[in-house]
Amino acid sequence: MTWVLANLPLLGQYTLAHLTQAVPAIIATFLLAVPAARLARLSRPVRSLLVTGSSLLYAIPSLALFIVLPLIIGTGVRDTLNVIVALTLYGLALMVPAAVEALESVDRGPLAAATAMGMGIERRFLTVELPLAGPALLAGLRVVTVSTISLTTVGAVLGVRSLGFLFTDGFQRGLWSEVLSGLVLTVALALILDLLVVAVGRLLMPWTRRRRPSNTGGETEEAAA
Amino acid sequence: MTNLLAALAYIADPANWSGSLGIAHLLTEHVIYSLLGVVIAAAVGVPLGWAVGHSGRGRDAVAAFSGAARALPTLGLVTVLGLWLGIGLTAPLLAFAVLALPSVLAGAYAGVESADRLAVDAARASGMTELQVLARVEVPLGAPLLVGGLRAAVLQVIATATLAAYTGAGGLGRLMFLGLKTQDYPMMLASALLVIALALVSDIVFLPLQRLAVPAGSRPRKDT
User: Fold this and answer.
1) Which of A69, B56, B66, B120 is 20 to 30 A off residue A155, Cα-Cα?
2) What does the alpha-carbon distance between residue A45 and residue A51 come to, in Å, rounded to a whole number?
């Protein structure tokens, strides 16, 4: 505890660095996965290519990806950009299959109704299909958020500053409190961001907010009747 | 590109395959440690998963544990266990087992739970005891999902075993950290490529296993 109190500015600095690596990766993952999933819906070969490709991507060890990536994108191993791209690739490995499933799970009825009402394909996607797939997309994004925060620590092995630095530094110096505070902070950060994603989801999808209470309310009313 | 060629040359050079830091030794170590970790996880996770799947009790606890395990950073776990148990084999093995546990548990539990309720009821109605229902109906029907869980666990541990070398465990990670310390990029890259290859090979090995795990009776009949 004394170690934590004495190093509060350092912890803040690492947390901030952690966020600047993880948050862009999480956002990029979402922004790339949804169009990719939409592409996958258009044709079978593209679908199998994307889904198999992302599961292969997940087979690559994180540390190995951090090292191999600079070869392809021409960054330094320790560049923030290298970390962000690596994390985004891992995020996509999880998010693309989830997004494909989310879009596939959408009820065909409303889509046919939208078409019958004269909606164009673009407008139908944005105003009907995407909102209906929303809750399933959110579930995928939550998994991505938690695993990205946890994965960001791996960069520390290569000398990238993040909360993971507390593990490597603490291990080398034999400081229990440093390693443990890194562990606690990482898990806490993952949980906080997860809650944040859920909150944003509720804000953007008000109907999911209302559905549950009214459902249970309906049931109790029925039971009372 | 030159680095990639240098890395491939490193792997191709027979001189780099022998000795205590040779690829052959490290590769074997990597495979053995990974398998040991998954075996330990399976020894704990499979019976527990079956029990949870059969009784339906403790389902929330399993879900909460899996969620927490995902948030737990591997590197943090490896270093904490390394500090606690010292440099040696126990710490990394324990870390592998903890990391493999959620996948194994989920596979065992989801498999048993996904068994056709009609078949389970029929087994119970024909006088099987609960243990027989589990062993003769639910476990065989859930086998494909269990193998799927084991596959995910092995993959995860092979990838993680690289990080475990940070606290002194063996395996291909040693090469990676040695390259990192000596700024030998081709060496790091060679070790990364070997780990990726190992992960892909293990995934390919599991493909027929997963097909074999489907019990004969539950395969879709060809004559219909």
Assistant:
1) B66
2) 10
